Amino acid sequence: MAERTQYEELMRQFSAFGAVRRELGRIMPSDCPGGSAAVLTLLDRYGDMRMSRLAELLSVDMSVTSRHVAHVVDRGWIERSPDPADKRSRILRLTPGGRAQVAELSRRTAQLLADRLSDWSDEEVGQLIRLMARLRADFGDCRTAAPRHAETPHTSHSPHHELEHTTRTPA
């Protein structure tokens, strides 16, 4: 197990990571703030869904989700249609314009990462991806997961760990 000083340094690095997130946010189109980008990214990743599921995935209150959805609907990036199973609910789905916006967000993000990590080897980038995926998996769903205690045995992680879930939001 790592020493306390290593965990303290890790905390400092997490705090400093805010600068990376801010730079990723600065490259986004002005009409697509972070919340809107998150809505588009989640709909692209998980497909059509109800507003309640989107709020769950965003880990925010339904009122915040509604504001984000209204913003992207106003721009024509998603549409709301009646849920055939429950006419009171709406299903959210990406429009072709929304898919184009997701592609642009992805292009910009990938380009910035390629620029900033240009002196990293493929192995180093792969290692970062694996370690970040492992960190997220160990934290699980922070909204519902019980905290892990020191006496809880740590399960072994394969270096070929499934990377299906990477990030909830692009920025």
Low-pLDDT regions: 143-171
The radius of gyration computed from the alpha-carbon positions, rounded to a whole number of angstroms, is 18 Å
Spatial shape: globular
CATH architecture label of the domain at 23-118? Orthogonal Bundle
Total of helices: 6
Strand order of the largest sheet: 1-3-2
Please write the string of helix (H) and strand (E) elements. Answer: HHEHHEEHH
Say which CATH homologous superfamily of the domain at 23-118 is assigned: Winged helix-like DNA-binding domain superfamily/Winged helix DNA-binding domain
Report the CATH topology name of the domain at 23-118: Arc Repressor Mutant, subunit A
How would you characterize the largest beta sheet? 3 strands, antiparallel
Binned strand content: 5-15%
Kindly name the structural category: mainly alpha
- How many strand elements? 3
Bin the helical content. Answer: 55-70%
Distance between the termini: 31 Å
Instruction: Average the pLDDT over all residues and give the rounded result.
Output: 84
CATH secondary-structure class of the domain at 23-118: Mainly Alpha
Per-chain topology:
Blueprint: H1 4-26, H2 34-46, E1 49-50, H3 51-58, H4 62-74, E2 78-83, E3 86-94, H5 96-116, H6 122-139
Antiparallel strand pairs: 1-3, 2-3
Helix pairs in contact: 2-4, 2-5, 3-4
